[in-house]
Amino acid sequence: xxxxxxxxxxxxxxxxxxxxxxxxxxxxxxxxxxxxxxxxxxxxxxxxxxxxxxxxxxxxxxxxxxxxxxxxxxxxxxxxxxxxxxxxxxxxxxxxxxxxxxxxxxxxxxxxxxxxxxxxxxxxxxxxxxxxxxxxxxxxxxxxxxxxxxxxxxxxxx
Length: 158
Hints:
Blueprint: H1 5-12, H2 32-46, H3 50-65, E1 72-74, E2 77-89, E3 96-106, E4 120-123, H4 125-134, H5 148-157
Antiparallel strand pairs: 1-2, 2-3, 3-4
Helix pairs in contact: 3-4
């Protein structure tokens, strides 16, 4: 796969310490273009649409903000939002996004038994943008990895 210059530049900014301390790739040994291709195949297998899932994450964020930082039950989900000062640039160079974090898990599951990325989804405004525009769910082990199977499960429970 031949990368366009914008992709080469973006992928170069995804490592730790460039935009965020932990970066966007986690402990994933795959190249970013492979991560995207495999997640696109997984989305297709699960019958998910990138735009629709991004819309749903946006809706969950908006619902969670009503809790003013405290956990809030929405349907079968428990949502909590947090804000930080500042903005984060997209690695692709196409915008700045508010620094925030939204966590979503099943409401009947005790927090202490949740494993981030397996039982609890954590995302941000930048995560939603990366999903919607670039189909980038981030690498495995990234704190903001949008695991397709987990998103499918949580979106179904809403």
